[in-house]
Every structure is written in structure tokens, then in C-alpha cells.
Design a protein that fits this description.
Elements (H helix, E strand, L loop, with lengths): L5 E3 L4 H14 L2 E5 L6 H11 L3 H5 L10 E2 L5 E2 L2 E2 L3 E6 L28 H27 L5 H6 L4 E9 L11 E6 L5 E6 L5 E4 L5 E3 L6 E6 L1 H6 L9 E4 L6 E9 L5 E2 L24 E2 H12 L8
Parallel strand pairs: 1-2
Antiparallel strand pairs: 2-12, 3-6, 4-5, 6-7, 7-14, 8-13, 9-12, 9-14, 10-11, 10-13, 15-16
Helix pairs in contact: 1-4
């Protein structure tokens, strides 16, 4: 089996577009290098936050809504509690519609600036950089499929529903715990995810053959995976890859995932970006891809399931 592609963004534009397009179809995941993003600062902030006293972390726990800190077991995947603590934040825009009644439109609950004075600016800077990268990659995808270069970025909009998830997976003796997974098998729901891993590893993806493949950390790279909306828009040409995270055994694992998704009000029209390809969506997405749907409705249903740890098993 061939290995997951590593794409050099300093290569010629045509070569980059061709390699990204092929990777989106064959794998649904790839590495990028020479991406120009400083990753050290955000990892440093994560280490400081997650290794702080519990009381300091609890100050960032949302009283309502979704965006802030959660403890181990506070998030659920396929009816099992995830073995991680973490925090989510969404991008904040000057013209943000505060009247949109949704848990996904709730305020961000940031850590106390007296405890973590530089945390929020570092997170916002990293989110801005990864959004720029994702838009660059999306334009390469459109080029390869034969669409207008800005097709995907126009659909996502200049103010996408962008989230950042920052996580610590505590080391554990996985043989003594019912599930060996920090996060169980799943696909991401939106358009594109940009993943930063530390040196511990544990991220795996399912190849089209059904075999699980390790995606080990490689210095200087970020991992990019395609999501459900990308597959639905392109009639299956872009592959929304199933993935999971193993519980670390020797050391804690830290990671940062940035989710670049359409604005919440966007109506997703299946096959809209089919281009010149002749593909079909995977069986698990066929029902969703049968009719147009509003991205907000879709995400709210998924969010409700992931935020019910009391109904899940360990």
C-alpha cells in the first residue's frame, strides 16, 4: 500500500493542485510542509493550560453553550466517552449575528487573562493562519476538479464556521480500560480539518481498503483531512476519511484541530461541486446527500449527541 502523501506547498502551483486533488480522492488525508505557520506557540500555550491547577482550568468552563473547557469524559464519540480533556473555541467576527439562536452561536469562554494573559491572542492568531492555509488548499482542490478556483471558498464564505479544538490525551494503561481509543472511529462533519500533532502520535485513518493506517507526526508538517460536506459537494470525489486516536501509553498526547466549515446558514446542495468527476458518495453518507440541508441543522444534531456524556459508556 502506498503511503499518505506529503505535499510541499513551495512546489509549482500546478503540481501542488494535482497532488492535493489526487490525495483528496485517493486518501481524504495528506500532510503539508512549508506551510509557513508557527506551531510552537500554540503548543506551548496548551501545555501551560492543561498542566495548570484544576481551578484555573474550570474558569474557562462554559456556564452555557459549547465553547470553552471540558474535563475528561466531557465529550462523546459513538456513544463512548472520549479519553481526553480539551477546549473548543469558534472564530469571532465583527459582524457576527448574535441573534442566531443556537448552541453553536454561543459565546466563547476564554481562560482568565490573569492566569493565561497571552492565551486568547495566540489562539486567534493560529486560527487566522490555518484559515488562510485551508483556503489556499481549497482553491487547489477546485482547480484540480475543474471548477472555478474560488468555488469552495465562496461557498464556505469569508466568515466560515471555524472552530479550534485543543486537546490533552492523558497517558494510560490501555489494557486496563474498556476502550483503547482516546477518540473512537468517526468522520468530521464539515469541509476540512487541519491537525497539529505533538511527537507522541496515535492518529489513525481508515484507507479505502478498510485497513487502519497510522498517521505519525512528521516534523514541520500539518495533517489535512477532508470531511463530510466536501464529499457530498463533490459527489464522492473528495473522500471524507474515517479516523480515530489511540490512548497514549507512555506520555500525554497534545493536539490542535482546526475545523474549517461552511457558515452555519449555508444550505448544502449535494453534487454542486461535481465538476468533471464521475464518483458517488460513500454508503454512510447517501441518505444525508439525497436532499439539500442547512449546515446549522446538521451540526446541531451532531453537537447534541457529542455533549451527552451521561448517556455514554467509558
Amino acid at each position: 500500500m502506498s503511503s499518505i502523501p506529503i505535499i510541499d506547498l513551495l512546489a509549482q502551483t500546478g503540481e501542488v493542485s494535482a497532488r492535493i486533488g489526487a490525495a483528496c480522492n485517493e486518501w481524504g488525508v495528506f500532510y503539508v510542509k512549508n506551510h509557513g505557520i508557527d506551531t510552537g506557540a500554540i503548543l506551548s500555550k496548551l501545555h501551560k493550560f492543561f498542566n495548570s491547577e484544576a481551578a484555573a482550568k474550570q474558569k474557562a468552563k462554559p456556564k452555557d453553550g459549547y465553547f470553552g473547557y471540558f474535563q475528561i469524559g466531557g465529550e462523546v464519540t459513538i456513544d463512548k466517552k472520549d479519553w481526553k480533556e480539551g477546549m473548543y473555541y469558534r472564530a469571532e467576527y465583527p459582524n457576527h449575528d448574535k441573534n442566531l439562536d443556537s448552541v453553536l452561536n454561543a459565546a466563547n469562554h476564554w481562560p482568565d487573562t490573569r492566569d493565561f494573559p497571552d492565551f486568547k491572542p495566540a489562539v486567534q492568531e493560529y486560527m487566522a493562519a490555518t484559515k488562510k492555509l485551508a483556503f489556499q488548499l481549497a482553491q487547489c482542490m477546485a482547480d484540480h476538479i475543474g471548477l472555478k478556483r474560488t468555488f469552495f471558498t465562496d461557498k464556505i464564505s469569508d466568515e466560515p464556521f471555524q472552530q479550534i479544538g485543543m486537546f490533552r490525551y492523558p497517558k494510560s494503561d490501555s489494557t486496563s480500560i474498556a476502550s483503547p481509543w482516546g477518540v473512537g472511529p468517526h468522520s468530521d462533519n464539515g469541509f476540512m480539518t487541519v491537525l497539529l500533532q505533538d511527537s507522541v502520535g496515535g492518529f489513525q485513518v481508515m484507507a479505502k481498503s478498510g485497513q487502519w493506517i497510522d498517521v505519525p507526526p512528521i516534523d514541520g508538517t500539518l495533517v489535512v483531512n477532508l470531511c463530510d460536506v466536501a464529499e457530498i459537494w463533490t459527489s464522492g470525489y473528495c473522500h471524507s476519511v474515517m479516523h480515530r486516536v489511540a490512548k497514549p501509553v507512555s506520555n500525554d498526547r497534545y493536539s490542535v484541530a482546526v475545523f474549517i466549515d461552511p457558515c452555519l446558514e449555508r444550505v448544502i446542495v449535494p453534487d454542486e461541486a461535481k465538476g468533471s468527476t464521475n464518483c458517488e458518495v460513500s454508503e454512510r453518507l447517501k441518505e444525508l446527500a439525497s436532499l439539500p440541508f442547512q449546515f446549522l441543522d446538521y451540526m446541531e444534531k451532531l453537537c447534541e449527541r457529542s455533549m451527552k456524556p451521561n448517556t455514554a459508556t467509558q
